[in-house]
């Protein structure tokens, strides 16, 4: 039984996690790279990581002695690294993108404009859904995601989870599920109006998948 053989290997999840890109994007369907590594060690498919692409699938196939498979299209397509950029002129300081970022790549404070640190951004795009004024775009990073980037992102993710008492995943889900905070309702309504006016004047901005 292949599933039982893989699940019985306590070190496999660690070796899988070492291969994953650590973008924490959740496109695999899990709440981060380590949960996916644990699931993969227990028998989950090896082809659910678009950031890793075909090269990762091949490496995981070798590690787990499974056949290579094409990337699962349900998880999205692979592509060049993109990083988030906040249009600071339209940011209302709601902090929802900060709560959503799994690697502390966004800086700012309540009612103050926020900014993305591009060198730290993993391109996970988890900051996009909770933004109530659509002021975040994904833009080409102009570089490749490296093993050093993955190691640094893994450490930042672990530090954030430790700081939040392991509550970071829930807070990110809450931020995505509740993008409008009642105390800021008037400010957000006004920002929505400004955003709609800007879109009407400039046209809808495209996003990098």
- According to DSSP, the number of beta strands is 4
**N→C terminal distance:** 38 Å
Number of separate domains = 2
For the biggest β-sheet, the strand order reads: 1-4
- Give the oligomer, counting copies of the same chain as homo and different chains as hetero: single chain
**Could you give a short account of the major beta sheet?**
2 strands, antiparallel
What Rg is obtained from the alpha carbons, in whole angstroms?
Answer: 19 Å
Q: How would you sum up this structure, described in words?
A:
It is a single chain. The chain has 209 residues and is mainly alpha-helical. The chain has 2 domains: 2-75, no CATH class; 82-202, Alpha-Beta Plaits. Helices cover 41% and strands 7% of the residues. The chain has 8 helices and 4 strands. The protein has helices at 2-7, 12-19, 33-41, 53-64, 96-100, 147-163, 168-177, 185-202; strands at residues 82-86, 106-107, 115-116, 136-140. The strands form 2 sheets. The chain has a two-stranded antiparallel sheet. Strands 2-3 form a two-stranded antiparallel ribbon. Helix 2 crosses helix 3 (33-41) and helix 2 (12-19) packs antiparallel against helix 4. The longest helix has 18 residues, at 185-202.
